[in-house]
Amino acid sequence: ASGLNGTLWLSDADNNRLIRISPDGTVLDSVGGFDRPMHIAIRDGQLLVAEYGADQITGVRNAARMPMPFAEAFDAPSGVDVSGERRAVADFYNHRVVYQVGDRDMTFGTKGSGPGELTYPTDVQFAHDKLWVADAYNHRVQVFDLDGKHLNTFGEAETMNAATGIFVSDDAVYVTDFENSRIQIYGLDGTYIGTLSESLEKPTDVLAIGDTLYVVNYAGRSLSIFGKT
Q1: Cα angle vertex 139, ends 227, 130, to 5°?
Q2: 3-state secondary structure of 140
Protein backbone atom coordinates (compact mmCIF):
# COMPACT_ATOMS: atom_id res chain seq x y z
CA ALA A 1 0.00 0.00 0.00
CA SER A 2 1.16 3.53 -0.70
CA GLY A 3 -0.32 7.02 -0.91
CA LEU A 4 -0.37 9.55 -3.76
CA ASN A 5 -2.28 12.83 -4.19
CA GLY A 6 -4.73 12.12 -1.40
CA THR A 7 -5.56 8.58 -2.52
CA LEU A 8 -4.17 5.12 -1.72
CA TRP A 9 -2.82 2.44 -4.03
CA LEU A 10 -3.10 -1.22 -3.05
CA SER A 11 -1.64 -4.34 -4.66
CA ASP A 12 -4.23 -6.99 -5.53
CA ALA A 13 -1.80 -9.83 -6.23
CA ASP A 14 -4.37 -12.57 -6.84
CA ASN A 15 -6.01 -10.47 -9.57
CA ASN A 16 -2.73 -9.09 -10.99
CA ARG A 17 -3.75 -5.49 -10.57
CA LEU A 18 -3.42 -2.32 -8.51
CA ILE A 19 -6.42 -0.65 -6.93
CA ARG A 20 -6.76 3.06 -6.18
CA ILE A 21 -9.04 4.00 -3.30
CA SER A 22 -10.06 7.12 -1.42
CA PRO A 23 -8.96 7.56 2.21
CA ASP A 24 -12.38 6.33 3.40
CA GLY A 25 -11.97 3.06 1.46
CA THR A 26 -14.05 3.82 -1.65
CA VAL A 27 -12.64 2.09 -4.75
CA LEU A 28 -11.91 4.70 -7.43
CA ASP A 29 -10.32 2.63 -10.20
CA SER A 30 -7.88 -0.18 -10.92
CA VAL A 31 -4.97 -0.90 -13.24
CA GLY A 32 -4.34 -4.46 -14.48
CA GLY A 33 -1.70 -6.30 -16.42
CA PHE A 34 0.80 -6.93 -13.60
CA ASP A 35 2.25 -10.29 -12.62
CA ARG A 36 1.62 -10.82 -8.91
CA PRO A 37 2.30 -7.27 -7.72
CA MET A 38 3.51 -7.24 -4.13
CA HIS A 39 4.71 -4.29 -2.04
CA ILE A 40 4.69 -0.93 -3.80
CA ALA A 41 6.15 2.50 -3.14
CA ILE A 42 5.61 5.99 -4.50
CA ARG A 43 8.46 8.44 -4.98
CA ASP A 44 8.34 11.75 -6.89
CA GLY A 45 4.97 10.93 -8.39
CA GLN A 46 6.08 7.56 -9.75
CA LEU A 47 4.54 4.29 -8.64
CA LEU A 48 7.10 1.53 -8.07
CA VAL A 49 5.76 -2.02 -8.25
CA ALA A 50 7.56 -5.19 -7.15
CA GLU A 51 6.28 -7.76 -9.67
CA TYR A 52 6.87 -11.03 -7.86
CA GLY A 53 5.82 -13.18 -10.81
CA ALA A 54 7.69 -11.23 -13.49
CA ASP A 55 10.98 -10.94 -11.52
CA GLN A 56 11.15 -7.22 -12.13
CA ILE A 57 10.49 -3.78 -10.65
CA THR A 58 8.15 -1.71 -12.77
CA GLY A 59 7.88 2.06 -12.68
CA VAL A 60 4.45 3.50 -13.50
CA ARG A 61 3.83 7.15 -14.26
CA ASN A 62 0.47 8.16 -15.71
CA ALA A 63 -0.19 5.50 -18.38
CA ALA A 64 3.46 4.67 -19.06
CA ARG A 65 5.18 1.59 -17.61
CA MET A 66 8.87 0.80 -17.71
CA PRO A 67 10.97 -1.92 -16.02
CA MET A 68 13.59 -0.35 -13.76
CA PRO A 69 17.14 -1.39 -14.74
CA PHE A 70 19.17 -3.46 -12.28
CA ALA A 71 22.35 -5.40 -12.97
CA GLU A 72 21.27 -8.21 -10.63
CA ALA A 73 18.63 -10.77 -11.62
CA PHE A 74 15.75 -11.09 -9.15
CA ASP A 75 13.98 -14.23 -8.00
CA ALA A 76 10.55 -13.03 -6.90
CA PRO A 77 11.09 -9.41 -5.79
CA SER A 78 8.57 -8.60 -3.09
CA GLY A 79 9.33 -5.04 -1.97
CA VAL A 80 10.97 -1.89 -3.31
CA ASP A 81 11.86 1.61 -2.18
CA VAL A 82 13.77 4.58 -3.57
CA SER A 83 15.45 7.52 -1.84
CA GLY A 84 17.29 9.97 -4.08
CA GLU A 85 19.85 7.97 -6.05
CA ARG A 86 19.37 4.90 -3.83
CA ARG A 87 17.15 1.94 -4.73
CA ALA A 88 16.55 -1.16 -2.64
CA VAL A 89 14.68 -4.37 -3.48
CA ALA A 90 13.71 -7.27 -1.22
CA ASP A 91 14.84 -10.24 -3.35
CA PHE A 92 12.66 -12.92 -1.75
CA TYR A 93 13.99 -16.28 -2.94
CA ASN A 94 17.59 -15.09 -3.08
CA HIS A 95 17.42 -14.11 0.62
CA ARG A 96 19.08 -10.75 0.04
CA VAL A 97 18.60 -7.06 -0.64
CA VAL A 98 19.59 -5.76 -4.04
CA TYR A 99 20.92 -2.26 -3.53
CA GLN A 100 21.70 0.36 -6.15
CA VAL A 101 23.43 3.68 -5.47
CA GLY A 102 23.68 5.79 -8.60
CA ASP A 103 25.36 3.57 -11.17
CA ARG A 104 26.80 1.22 -8.53
CA ASP A 105 25.03 -2.10 -7.95
CA MET A 106 25.56 -4.31 -4.90
CA THR A 107 23.79 -6.85 -2.72
CA PHE A 108 23.84 -7.72 0.94
CA GLY A 109 22.40 -10.56 2.98
CA THR A 110 22.64 -14.33 2.62
CA LYS A 111 20.25 -17.01 3.86
CA GLY A 112 20.52 -17.44 7.61
CA SER A 113 19.35 -16.15 10.96
CA GLY A 114 22.41 -14.24 12.20
CA PRO A 115 22.82 -10.45 12.21
CA GLY A 116 22.65 -9.21 8.62
CA GLU A 117 21.44 -12.59 7.33
CA LEU A 118 17.96 -12.89 5.82
CA THR A 119 15.29 -15.53 5.30
CA TYR A 120 12.74 -14.54 2.66
CA PRO A 121 12.80 -10.74 3.06
CA THR A 122 9.53 -9.22 1.90
CA ASP A 123 9.63 -5.45 2.30
CA VAL A 124 12.12 -2.58 2.47
CA GLN A 125 11.93 1.11 3.35
CA PHE A 126 14.36 4.02 3.51
CA ALA A 127 13.73 6.19 6.56
CA HIS A 128 15.81 8.27 8.97
CA ASP A 129 18.97 7.71 6.88
CA LYS A 130 18.67 3.95 7.30
CA LEU A 131 17.28 0.99 5.39
CA TRP A 132 14.65 -1.08 7.22
CA VAL A 133 13.95 -4.67 6.12
CA ALA A 134 11.02 -6.94 6.97
CA ASP A 135 12.93 -10.20 7.45
CA ALA A 136 9.77 -12.25 7.07
CA TYR A 137 10.66 -15.81 8.00
CA ASN A 138 13.23 -14.86 10.58
CA HIS A 139 10.18 -13.17 12.16
CA ARG A 140 11.91 -9.85 12.78
CA VAL A 141 12.98 -6.46 11.46
CA GLN A 142 16.57 -5.65 10.57
CA VAL A 143 18.03 -2.17 10.21
CA PHE A 144 21.02 -1.30 8.02
CA ASP A 145 22.95 1.89 7.38
CA LEU A 146 23.10 3.38 3.89
CA ASP A 147 26.20 1.32 3.11
CA GLY A 148 24.42 -1.95 3.93
CA LYS A 149 26.04 -2.42 7.35
CA HIS A 150 23.83 -4.14 9.93
CA LEU A 151 22.81 -1.83 12.79
CA ASN A 152 19.94 -3.41 14.71
CA THR A 153 17.54 -6.34 14.91
CA PHE A 154 14.22 -6.44 16.77
CA GLY A 155 10.87 -8.23 16.88
CA GLU A 156 11.99 -11.72 17.87
CA ALA A 157 11.06 -11.25 21.52
CA GLU A 158 7.42 -10.68 20.53
CA THR A 159 7.32 -14.10 18.75
CA MET A 160 6.24 -12.69 15.42
CA ASN A 161 5.26 -15.25 12.81
CA ALA A 162 6.10 -13.91 9.33
CA ALA A 163 6.97 -10.21 9.34
CA THR A 164 5.61 -9.48 5.87
CA GLY A 165 5.31 -5.70 5.74
CA ILE A 166 6.85 -2.66 7.38
CA PHE A 167 6.17 1.04 7.60
CA VAL A 168 8.48 3.51 9.35
CA SER A 169 6.88 6.82 10.32
CA ASP A 170 8.42 9.88 11.96
CA ASP A 171 8.33 8.25 15.38
CA ALA A 172 7.40 4.56 15.12
CA VAL A 173 7.86 1.30 13.22
CA TYR A 174 4.77 -0.71 12.26
CA VAL A 175 5.22 -4.38 11.31
CA THR A 176 2.62 -6.81 9.99
CA ASP A 177 2.74 -10.03 12.04
CA PHE A 178 1.03 -12.08 9.33
CA GLU A 179 0.29 -15.48 10.86
CA ASN A 180 -0.63 -13.95 14.24
CA SER A 181 -3.06 -11.48 12.58
CA ARG A 182 -1.70 -8.41 14.32
CA ILE A 183 0.44 -5.28 13.94
CA GLN A 184 3.47 -4.92 16.18
CA ILE A 185 4.54 -1.35 16.98
CA TYR A 186 8.07 -0.29 17.96
CA GLY A 187 10.02 2.85 18.62
CA LEU A 188 12.71 3.84 16.16
CA ASP A 189 15.30 2.20 18.40
CA GLY A 190 13.42 -1.11 18.30
CA THR A 191 11.78 -0.75 21.72
CA TYR A 192 8.44 -2.56 21.81
CA ILE A 193 5.46 -0.20 22.19
CA GLY A 194 2.34 -2.30 21.66
CA THR A 195 0.15 -4.54 19.54
CA LEU A 196 -2.89 -3.91 17.36
CA SER A 197 -5.04 -6.94 16.52
CA GLU A 198 -8.67 -5.86 16.43
CA SER A 199 -10.47 -7.10 13.27
CA LEU A 200 -7.23 -8.05 11.49
CA GLU A 201 -7.03 -11.15 9.30
CA LYS A 202 -3.50 -12.03 8.19
CA PRO A 203 -2.31 -8.49 7.43
CA THR A 204 0.30 -8.11 4.70
CA ASP A 205 1.04 -4.39 4.74
CA VAL A 206 0.56 -1.28 6.83
CA LEU A 207 0.70 2.45 6.06
CA ALA A 208 0.51 5.44 8.40
CA ILE A 209 -0.66 8.76 6.97
CA GLY A 210 -1.10 11.58 9.46
CA ASP A 211 -3.24 10.28 12.31
CA THR A 212 -4.61 7.33 10.35
CA LEU A 213 -3.29 3.78 10.08
CA TYR A 214 -4.26 1.64 7.08
CA VAL A 215 -3.82 -2.15 7.25
CA VAL A 216 -4.26 -4.52 4.28
CA ASN A 217 -5.82 -7.87 5.25
CA TYR A 218 -4.97 -10.81 2.99
CA ALA A 219 -7.37 -13.36 4.50
CA GLY A 220 -10.19 -10.88 4.90
CA ARG A 221 -9.58 -9.27 1.48
CA SER A 222 -10.20 -5.96 3.15
CA LEU A 223 -8.64 -2.73 4.36
CA SER A 224 -8.80 -1.87 8.07
CA ILE A 225 -8.60 1.80 9.02
CA PHE A 226 -7.61 2.95 12.50
CA GLY A 227 -7.06 6.27 14.21
CA LYS A 228 -3.55 6.46 15.67
CA THR A 229 -3.31 6.92 19.41
Answers
A1: 70
A2: strand
CA-to-CA distance for 175 and 193, rounded, in angstroms?
Answer: 12
More confident residue, 227 or 181: 181
DSSP code of residue 228: -
Non-local CB neighbours of 131 within 8 Å, separated by 6+ positions = 81, 88, 97, 99, 124, 125, 143, 144, 145, 146, 148
Residue 201: HSE in the Cβ half-sphere, 13 Å Cα cutoff = 9
Helices and strands in the chain, H and E counts: 0, 23
DSSP state of 181: T
Listed in sequence order, the residues at least 6 apart from 91 whose beta carbon sits closer than 8 Å to its beta carbon are 72, 74, 75, 76, 77, 97, 98, 107, 121
84-113 pLDDT, tens per residue? 999 999 999 999 999 999 989 999 999 999
Concatenate the DSSP letters of all residues of 73-118 into one string: PPSSEEEEEEETTEEEEEETTTTEEEEEETTEEEEE--BSSSTT-B
122: left (phi over 0), alpha (psi -120 to 50) or beta: alpha
